[in-house]
Design a protein that fits this description.
Blueprint (H helix, E strand, L loop, with lengths): L9 E3 L6 E3 L12 H12 L13 H5 L1
Antiparallel strand pairs: 1-2
Length: 64
């Protein structure tokens, strides 16, 4: 029997599209670096990224 190959998983960094190691040893995963993580966080904070939602239609939803 052959031993399983311990292959490192490389993913695309969501910010710069470079290679990023997706493993516990990469503290910024799925990003490649702290810089890319901060750029992504800044885009969320400045509302550059948004999650679509429909407006509430029920009166009880409007009160909450």
């Amino acid at each position: 029997m052959s031993e399983p190959v311990n292959k490192q998983r490389i993913v695309r960094c969501p910010t710069c599209a470079g290679d990023s190691l997706f493993a516990p040893s990469n503290i910024w995963r799925p990003f490649c670096s702290e810089r890319c993580r901060q750029i992504d966080l800044g885009a969320w904070a400045s509302e550059g990224f948004r999650v679509e939602a429909s407006p509430p239609t029920d009166e009880q939803d409007l009160e909450q």
